[in-house]
Amino acid sequence: MAAVQTTGWGPDEAIILAACARFEVATGSTARARDLHAAAAARLRGVSRTSPVWHHLSTIVDSAGAMVALGDDEFAVARERATAARKTAVAAGDMPLIASVTLVAAEVALATGDHAGAARLLAAAAVVRGADDPTAMEVRSLRERLRLALGDVTFAESQAQGAELSRAAALALLDSALPG
After folding, report:
1. Cβ pair 128, 119 in contact under 8 A
2. Which of 67, 83, 125, 157 is the Cys-Cys partner for 178 at CB 3.0 to 4.6 Å?
3. Angstrom distances, CA of residue 26 to CA of 1, 33, 64, 70, 142
4. What is residue 134's predicted lDDT score, i.e. its pLDDT?
């Protein structure tokens, strides 16, 4: 990991560092996650905003930053970073990327006590993506935490509300969850 942090300068390093930051949050190592996110953000600053990859990279780095902020119980910062990620993901026009931000929005909703809203966002992420991804670690983890928080019946009802949305309505739900 030290080699990634000190050599090269570019998109690949930003992606790797952001992914590692998210992993560290998942394992409870928020101090390490903060350092990795800071390194990812530094790599992003080295990429021109006119680069064809900038919106994607910015989304990935801001999403990781939101998760780091959630790990630190900094909910306002998490919402701010998630909102920035939503804006750049929408600008990129990449539905799987937007879906990944929808999962971050669900994490913010869960952390701030809106469990039913988080479950709707989780289902909406699959609508935006075009399919559910039950193999994704963050989807499985969020699904189980929401099922525990809501109970089976309320979880299923909230999931159904999100799953029945059109893609446009799912995108509108994301916009309302992360306005700005």
Report:
1. no
2. 83
3. 17, 9, 11, 11, 11
4. 84
